[in-house]
Amino acid sequence: MNLDNDPFLKISNYIINPYIHKWQKNNKKNVGHYCTYIPEELLYAANLLPFRIRATGHEDTDLGDVYMVRFTCSFVRATLDMALRGIYDFLDGLFICNSCDHSRRMFELFDLKVFNREGFQKKVPRFYVSLPHVVTNEGFEWYKQEIKELKEEIENDYNINITNKNLLNSINIYNNNRSLLREIHKLRIQDAPKITGTEALQISMANSSVPKDIANQELERILNILKDSEGLKTDAKRVMLVGSEVDDINFTQLIENSGASIVSDFLCFGTRNFLDDVKLESGKNPLDQISKRLYYRMSCPRMMDDHQRRLDFIKDEVKRAKIDGIILQRINNCDLHGCDNMLFVHELKELDIPVFNIDREFFQADTTRLQTRIEAFIEMIT
Amino acid sequence: MLSSINQENRVIPLKMLSEALSTTDQLVKGILPENGIPALRIGVEKVNSVLKRYIEKAREGLPIVGYHFAIPPEYISCFDCVPICLEGTGYYLATMLLHGVEKYYDMMGNWGHPFHTCTAQKGAMGMSLDNLFQFDGIIIPTAPCDNTCASYPFFKYSKKFPLIIADMPFRKDEKSYKYYAEQIKNCLFQLGKVIGQEPDFEKMKEHLELENQVQKIRMEIFELTKAIPSPISNIYNAVSAGTFILISGTPENLSFYNEMLKIVKKRYKSKKHHGGEEKIRSIWPYMVTYFDMSLCEWLDRELGMSILFDIFNYNFAEPINTKSDLDTMFYDMAKKGMGWPMVKQSTDFYYPFIEDCLSMAKEFKADCFIFTQSIGCKQFGSIPKILRDALMEELGIPMLLIEFDVGDARVTSLKTMKEKISMFAQTLL
After folding, report:
1. Mean of the per-residue pLDDT values for chain B?
2. Does one domain contain both B29 and B57?
3. Which of A10, A115, A359, B168 maximizes the CB count within 10 A of its CB?
């Protein structure tokens, strides 16, 4: 048995899924966010269904291009395009933080152009979190306060009360979720991987689109399937995929169809999101613990003083997952990943494994050129 | 101990810039009449005077401190050091050198710096890669943009220059000012440790006070720009931006603005326009070109188009209180830093920026806006259409959008820019 037609993985192909409909039918709210620095545990504790905004399968940016110049990220432009076409009308709230210059401007563009467009009646609250750009104790105090204020805003806007009990319950569900993802990851990095990189990405995307208690049931089911499976018999080269947001399996398939197996990654729809848990310690405020985990976890390049830790993780993972080659990629105009990758290229030379650095558009464009380059890289790996 | 020439060679780009400014100075003084392009003449003289002093200090072996343009340079005047603005030096060289600094952009491009990153940093990065800079420390804020956060780690991880980071919140409120005030103070102490000096805040106060005076004069010039025709020349904006980030906090900077004010007042009284006749009054809410400042003169003289101000010339800070305690002073410094051109707009939502543009358009009787969207400035990448709609709907004022690179002539050439602006101007006249 494999995951080819698994219903849970199929959720990743679409934006809307039956669980969102069911959530709505129960008079509960769906809320969207772009970035993993938004505390999902808090939202879930507030009985809100957090949906990580993505642009899976969307290849047009025509409407988005009207409002965002060509030097901006085609992923964010694609999500704006979808929103302008009404695809994200199911959202009852939007959570933005200053993750990057592209996504943080969605606060204004959704306000002025998406939620204000003709015929759209719903009042959609928006929330903003100012996230420090460094990992320091003072920065943590700032972030902790931001999250406290966010909790109050959520309570006011949705007229609810978020108790510590709600938070603890949510933390347990999310910790369990991350633990299951880590278990699946272990099966991915073993000598005969039991899951492809594309399937791992699908699991991650589906996981970010449904209520976590449902996701946990599904992940347990998948884990059982994988444990019993034989593992992939393949001579494919073992690569690690690093860099900008990936939520389109066309890209991972392109790599895996070129003779590689993506056995690990350093992506926000990937390992970076499940490496650690919220620590539950008696006497500690659960909301502060949520903030602590989020702030101090493995960062993305928007944290400008934390490059060394990211590099160390990649180096360790190369050993752990027996990586043959690393693919660094960035969506064009992503300065953050572009510069982080630039440093990685030079620093990873000491590992003496091939490193490939490419730029791409969010949607699958220029496929032949990309495929040729990836195939050439895979051939290079001895 | 390094020899004096080796000490001086830690700041080769500064020497290159000083030499280029000396040449320009000679040309301007030798060829142009006294009233030729006074902003350029005075600006070049003042900036070069400061640079020569810095080069002398480098020769004496004082520490070389790089700073990001969004750290007002008077903030590091508490140290006896050679302060170098990385963005300002790169862009001033881009405009002063005959072939710009594209060579250094390409050097960094070959090293892996993505093509879409900001040339403001790329130039100084390339120069550092070529070992033309040897910094003892670099101090930066985490604003205004992704490029700042993305590019500066190169100096730390690749060049091993100590990088001191003042985290700036992307919010504007009391708690943000207090947080940033602490960040600035801590960073100055950190920088002091790195370069082996104690910060001398009494000395810094003198420089802050100089800038308090400069702010008053700049505001006066800004007010006079409401006059028709505009009493400032277009190139004043570019030169002022340069002095603002390169020599702020020095007596030369104060002297530059004092002299400019006299000239502006004279023009105001005589209702004379620098280019002859003012036909179009434009506001450039973002930046003017730095790869070739001659565009400013061409607009004045050929098109009769005044640039009333660019982003470096319409943001003013409250004076810093130097008479009270240190906490108050740092609080004011934080407010000023967070209101710094580009930082102010980039760390806030778009709403106040649009409001500012609308009210300035009315007050200054602007005929049009020209929005230059530079390739590196992603933080502004989703404003042009919103601003254009707001200007047209509320005031009936058109806006031209030009996508370019502030410091690289190859992205959108001067010729292309002139053509675009000419065609746009035809629709206005």
Report:
1. 96
2. yes
3. B168
Same domain, B169 and B228: no
Closest partner residue to A336 (CB to CB) among B149, B165, B167 is B149
pTM, rounded to two decimals: 0.96
Q: Indicate the burial class of B112 (C-beta count within 10 angstroms; 0-12, 13-18, 19 or more).
A: middle
**Taking CB atoms and an 8 Å cutoff, what residues of chain A touch B118?**
335
Domain shared by B93 and B220, yes or no: no
Same-domain check for residues B29 and B89 = yes
**DSSP output for A139-154:** HHHHHHHHHHHHHHHH
- Domain annotation covers residue B344: yes
Q: Nearest-CA distance from B360 to chain A in Å?
A: 21
Q: What is the pLDDT of residues B275-291, one digit of tens each?
A: 999 999 999 999 999 99
How far is C-alpha A142 from the chain's CA centre? 24
Q: Distance from CA of residue A29 to its chain's centroid?
A: 21
Q: What is the pLDDT of residue A1?
A: 52
Host H or E run for residue B374 = strand B368-374
Q: Which domain holds residue B278?
A: 208-237+272-428
Chain A residue numbers touching B167 (CB-CB < 8 A): 132-134, 136, 138-139, 142
Nearest to A100 among B146, B167, B373 (CB): B146
Q: pLDDT tens for residues A98-113? A: 999 999 999 999 999 9
Per-residue pLDDT of A244-253, as tens digits, reads 999 999 999 9
8 A C-beta contact, residue A124 and residue A91: yes
What number of other Cβ atoms are within 10 A of residue A312's Cβ?
Answer: 11
Per the listing, tokens 């494994």 go with A353
Whether the predicted pLDDT of A365 surpasses 80:
no
CA B332/CA B335 separation, integer angstroms: 5
* B179 and B216 inside one domain: no
For residue A26, how many other CB atoms are within 10 A of its CB?
8
Residues B80 and B218 in one domain: no
